[in-house]
Design goal:
By secondary structure, this protein is of the alpha/beta class. 45% of the residues lie in helices and 15% in strands. It has twelve helices and ten strands. It has an eight-stranded parallel barrel with strand order 1-2-3-4-5-6-7-8, surrounded by six helices. Helix 2 packs parallel to helix 3 and helix 9 packs parallel to helix 10. The two termini are 35 Å apart.
């Protein structure tokens, strides 16, 4: 499991921001060629991105690039120039505004052609699909099944809110007048179900009020509680909060590892299908739940502080 607790958006047209991002503790950095770059700056941004991937120090980070919307004239050149120029230093391409599986398949085929031509390992570069409108949401199951390269489904809240005429101007906040429940609950759960059905990660979109870290934390806790793997961040101030929210608490991580140890001991040594861990009964369902927390904790770099002691 690649840890994607925080995915930091960095404009490909800003070399200073690109350099600063290399020293930040975000799990993934995506260099943006789409919304963060003005049309007149697209070509220069590609060159910046290629240079940064080849020359920068991205140790410990997933290296991604968001290309332009497939309906624009820039996308094919984004893919060709970035992958031919820096494919060895690239982990994923992020495709925005995905509306149906043909969008992902197009990118998959083009990547395969470039990889073969350049002598790269075919299939190594992954794809992240950003769901940003009603059509993409309706087709999300087919999108999730569209390519073996696909690694994540990403929620794009700003464009999505506009596409369904949601009555708000604050990306990520509840629309005025919606006083019962959470207006995003169905959207988030729909993305999560499609992702999990196809062994993909689910990533929540950005929160635009970058100076209000507590509001960011509140919104991030919503998707983390559902089971999302991480969230986009737009500012360095959001990175620490995002990493914390999407990491298991130390006690929860330790407890998960103890459950795995206790269940392993019960089923292999004692040859029983259930066991007791203190006052808690654990079984196969407990093991599956513990695996999720343990995997996230390991991916986040947590270390155990308690060890299992078999019952006497």
């Amino acid at each position: 499991m690649r840890s994607r607790r925080t995915t930091l958006a960095v404009p490909g047209s800003n070399p200073r921001f690109i350099e600063k991002a290399q020293g930040l503790p975000a799990d993934e950095i995506f260099l943006d060629l789409e919304d963060a770059v003005a049309p007149a700056a697209k070509e220069d941004a590609r060159k910046n991105v290629v240079a940064a991937l080849n020359e920068g120090d991205w140790t410990g980070k997933i290296r991604a690039v968001r290309v332009n919307d497939l309906e624009t004239e820039w996308t094919y050149r984004d893919v060709i120039e970035v992958v031919e120029g820096a494919g060895a230093g690239l982990d994923c391409l992020l495709l925005p505004k995905v509306q149906d599986p043909s969008h992902v398949r197009w990118l998959d085929r083009l990547l395969t052609q470039i990889e073969r031509a350049m002598g790269y390992e075919v299939g190594r570069i992954g794809i992240e699909a950003q769901i940003e409108d009603a059509r993409g949401m309706v087709n999300i199951d087919a999108i999730a099944a569209s390519s073996p390269r696909l690694e994540t489904l990403v929620f794009g809240p700003g464009d999505f809110m506009a596409s369904i005429n949601m009555k708000t101007l604050v990306v990520g906040e509840q629309p005025p007048g919606y006083t019962e429940g959470d207006a995003y609950h169905y959207i988030l759960m729909r993305i999560l179900m499609a992702a999990r059905a196809h062994d993909l990660q689910a990533i929540d979109g950005p929160y635009f009020n970058v100076r209000d870290v507590e509001a960011f934390r509140r919104v991030a806790q919503r998707s983390a509680a559902l089971g999302f793997d991480g969230k986009w961040v737009l500012h360095p101030s959001q990175v620490e909060a995002g990493n914390e929210v999407f990491s298991p608490a130390q006690d929860d991580y330790d407890h998960a590892e103890l459950i795995l140890d206790a269940y392993e001991h019960a089923t292999t040594v004692e040859r029983r299908g259930a066991a007791m861990l203190g006052d808690e009964m654990i079984d196969e369902a407990s093991r599956k739940m513990a695996l999720v927390i343990a995997a996230k904790g390991r991916a986040a770099g947590l270390k155990r502080t308690r060890s299992f002691e078999p019952p006497v």
